[in-house]
Amino acid sequence: MNWISMLGLEAFVARWRASLIEGAIAAEDRLELAHLEWQEQKRRLRYLLVLTILVAGLTVVALILLSLALMVHFWDTPQRILVAWLVAGGWLLLWGAAMWALVSMVHQAGSAFALTRRELLQDWRGIKEQL
């Protein structure tokens, strides 16, 4: 004897079953989206680490070698002080450009999982409206 059909709950059970299946599919989609965004975030973080090491290493080497070369070249001339300040200013500008690139990469890394958060927020709003 089928009590569900006797009590007329077949439609109710079918709706619940459909809702559970739809919820499972939606959860699977959200997990897949989070996985894809995590892969993208890892790629950005690797790139950020490589860029940071590269900027730090190149800054040290470039500042030492080029500054030394310019100072040696102008050592016995009256423009020695001017050249020293120009060297310092030039490297300061290059350092600023590298720092700008680094900061922009950090800001991009800060927007991780934006699509997943937006989808989950929309799902939550939909659930609240149905309640």
From TrEMBL:
It comes from the Bacteria. The keyword Membrane applies. Keywords: Membrane, Transmembrane, Transmembrane helix. The chain crosses the membrane at residues 47-75, 81-103. This is Putative membrane protein YqjE. It comes from Simplicispira metamorpha. The lineage of its organism: Bacteria, Pseudomonadati, Pseudomonadota, Betaproteobacteria, Burkholderiales.
